Amino acid sequence: MTAVLGAGISGLSAAYYMLQRFGYPATIYEASNRVGGWIRTERHTDKGFLFEVGPRTIRPKGIPGANTLQLIEELNLPVDPIKSWQPAAKNRMIYAKGQLCLLPNSLSGIFKTLPPFSKPLISQIKQDLTAGKKKLKFADESIYDFVERRFGTELATYAISPMICGICAGDAKEISVRFLMNDLFEKEQKWGGIIKGVIFEKLFGKNEKPVSTGIFEEAMPKLYDKARQEKWSMYRVPDGIETLPRTLRDHLQSKEIDIQFSAECREITFTRDGAKMNIKGRDIYPEHIISSIPSYKLATCVKNQHPSLAALLTSIPYVDVAVVNLQYNVQELFKMKAFGFLVPPIERLPILGVIFDSCCFDMEGNTILTVMMGGRWFEENFGKDPTPKQLLDTALQHLELVMGIKEEPRFSRVHVLKKCIPQYTVGHKQRVADIRRYINQYKLPISLCGAAYDGVGINDVILSARTQVESLNISEV
What we know:
The chain is an alpha/beta fold. It has three domains: about 1-40 and about 240-315 and about 425-475, FAD/NAD(P)-binding domain (3-Layer(bba) Sandwich), CATH 3.50.50.60; about 85-210, protoporphyrinogen ix oxidase, domain 3; about 320-420, Protoporphyrinogen oxidase, mitochondrial, domain 2 (Polyamine Oxidase, Chain A, domain 2), CATH 3.90.660. It is built from 17 helices and 19 strands. Belongs to the protoporphyrinogen/coproporphyrinogen oxidase family. Protoporphyrinogen oxidase subfamily.
C-alpha cells in the first residue's frame, strides 16, 4: 500500500498519477475535513459572486501549464479563460510614490519614462550589456540583488519586489533568484550577462530539451494548443478554483481511492519493509509514503527517528497571509480595469496588494476586491494575533488611500492563513537537494511533493506530484 499525506491539490494529484502509472489506488490521509488545502472558494451563487481565499487563476504557460491543462482535460472540466488582450491580463499596476502606476504593457512602453521610473526601462535593460561579469562563490543570491546588479535599483525596487510580494508574499531581498529566474541566472553566470547569455545560447548552446518535456513526447494536450492559439493569459474553472480539487476528489473516490479525513499523521517510523505511521492513535504500515504536507509538519513526524532530516525540513521558512474579501453593490468602483495592483515594500504599507476579481471574471454586477496583507511583514504590521476587525479596518483604510474608495462593502470576509506560503530564500535549491539526498542515502521509502520543494504555484505542485510518482519503481511501491 502507498499512503499519501495531504489532500491538497498536490496530494490529490499524486494519488491520481499513482492510479494512472501503477493501476491501483493509494490511500490519502488528510488532517482537516476537506480537500483542497489552501485552495478555497466561497460561493455566493444567490448573489452572483464568489470569493477566492487562496489562488484564483492558473497560467497555461510551459510544461507545468500544459501538464495542468492535460489533467483538466482528462477530468472533463470546462475552463474560463482570460485572453492576453483583455484588461485583466494587460493592465498591472503598482502603488508607488503616492500614486497608482500602470506598468508598461507593450513594446512601446519600455521606450517611455513612466512613473515610478525616472528613465525609460530600455535604458535599464541596456545596463545588462555594460554590467561587469560576477561569478558568485555560492551559486545563488537574492532575486533583488541579481536584478539590481544587472538592471539597476529602480527595476529591482519597483518591478521585482512587488512581483515577489504578489507571488509568495515574500521579500525579494531574501528570496532566491533561482525561485523565478533560474534560467536567466545560469545564463548570466555562464556567459557574463543575461542578454549575452540569451544570444550566445541561441548561437552556440546545445539545443537540449528540458527533462520534463518527456512528459509530452508524442503530442501536447489539445487544451494547451487551444490556449496558445487563443492567447490565454490565465484561466480558472467555473464556480471557482476549488472546483478542481473537488472534481479530482470525486474522480478518485469513483476509482475506489480511500480519502480519510481528520486523519493527521503524528509520527512516522521507517522500517526495513516500509514505514509505520501513527494516525488517530492507530498504526498503519504503508510500503511507501508520498508526503504533500508542509515541510514543517513532516518534520514533526520524523524528528524522533531522523532529527537531522527534521532540521533540514524546518529550515524552509513559511509566512502568514491575511486575505480580506470585499463585495460592493456598485459596478464602477475602478478608474481603470486591471488585474489589480501590488505595493513595493519600500512604500512601507501593511498591504501587499489588491486583486480586482470582478475585472477578471463576471460577478453579475457586483464589484469584488481581495486585499492581501502581511506575508513576510505580518507580525511587524499586525502583531501575532490581530482581530478580524483590525484587519478589515486596515484593508478599508488603504483602499481609500490608494483607490479613493469610501463606500462601505455590502459583505466582507477575513481569513488569516497561518504558515501558508513557503519562502524560497537564498540557498533553497541546495536545501531541497540536501533533503532528497538524505532520503536517498538512508533509502527511506518516502517521496516529497507540494509547495515546499519545487514551486509554490498550482502548476508547480501538480507537476511535482507527477514527477515524484513517475520516478518511483513498481517494486518501491
